[in-house]
Structures are given as C-alpha cells and as structure tokens.
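Inverse folding, one chain.
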C-alpha cells in the first residue's frame, strides 16, 4: 500500500463507524425511552406533604380516586430545573384543556417552588413535596422533569423522561390521554 492509502484509511474507518452509529440513532424513534418496571402497575404508595398551605397530604389513594374521573398526568419537577421551566408552558396548556396534573416537587425548597409557580403559573390540581427524593425513587425517577400518564384504574401507562415538547405532546401524550379517556 502506498502512503495515500494509509492516510485515507483511518478517515474511511471513522466515517464507517460514525455512519453505523448515526443510522442506529435514526432508527430509534424515542431517544428518551428508558425502561420502567412500573408500566401497567398501580401508582406507588405515597403520603407526601402538600406544597400549598391548607391542602391535605397527597396519597396514592387520592391520585387513584382522581384518575377514576379521567386519565391524568403526574409530573415530577423542581424550581431549579431549567428543562422544567422549558416544558411549563405546555403543562399550562394541558391544564387549560382540562387535563388533570399532579405535581411532585422534588428536592426543592417550598418557597422556591412557590415562587417558580407564581411566576410561571400553577397547572397542578395537587402538588406534593418530595424533599428527600424518596418518593421519586419509588416512582423510578432518574431526574427532573419526568411525566407519567395514569389511567382510570390508577395504573401507570406511560413514562416520559425529560421535558415534554410539542412533538411529544402531540404524538404521544395527547393521543394516549384520548385513548385512555375513551376506554
């Protein structure tokens, strides 16, 4: 082999490997899909203090009772989370459409969470505080934000990791909520 072949060969190998991985990434429709042992299982048992003064402790039984009236979303968020801020307008939109949302405020100071919601709006029916993150562990949360779709029987039907965007909302969340409401 001549010197020109030796200089081009590494480039060709690199392009081949990059193409292989790039093709694999394009085949993956949901790059946020992470396995969850909770899919099709009841919401985890919890009893968390409310964020809002005057509200009662948020329990799994309360979430199940609310879900019997129609599917709902459980959204894990924090005031310090920039992606939570980015998805918040979509949560406000869902609330305006009549979708019930339960918030779990993870590892946050209550006053910071209240300031966050005062500035951006409060789309939640109830907000539980998970100061130490234990409830989030029970839900299998990797980080914030994460959103769970709960059906009328109180079972987790879908989990979305990361901030929701318009595409996720229109292609996954809303069709699933409609389907669960009709069943």
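Residues assigned per position:
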């Amino acid at each position: 082999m001549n010197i020109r072949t030796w200089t081009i060969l590494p480039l060709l190998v690199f392009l081949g490997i990059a193409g292989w991985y790039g093709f694999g990434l394009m085949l993956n429709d949901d790059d946020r899909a992470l396995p969850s042992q909770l899919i099709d299982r009841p919401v985890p048992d919890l009893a968390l203090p409310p964020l809002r003064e005057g509200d009662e402790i948020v329990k799994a039984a309360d979430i199940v009772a609310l879900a019997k009236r129609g599917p709902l979303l459980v959204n894990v968020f924090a005031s310090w989370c920039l992606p939570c801020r980015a998805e918040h307008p979509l949560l406000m939109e869902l609330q305006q459409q009549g979708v019930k949302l339960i918030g779990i405020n993870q590892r946050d100071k209550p006053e910071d969470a209240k300031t966050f919601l005062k500035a951006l709006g409060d789309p939640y029916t109830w907000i539980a505080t998970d100061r130490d993150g234990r409830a989030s562990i029970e839900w299998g949360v990797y980080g914030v934000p994460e959103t769970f779709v709960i059906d009328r029987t109180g079972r987790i039907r879908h989990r979305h990791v990361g901030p929701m965007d318009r595409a996720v909302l229109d292609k996954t969340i809303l069709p699933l909520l409609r389907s669960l409401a009709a069943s």
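The chain has two domains: 1-30, 47-182. Residues 27-32 have pLDDT under 50 and may be disordered.
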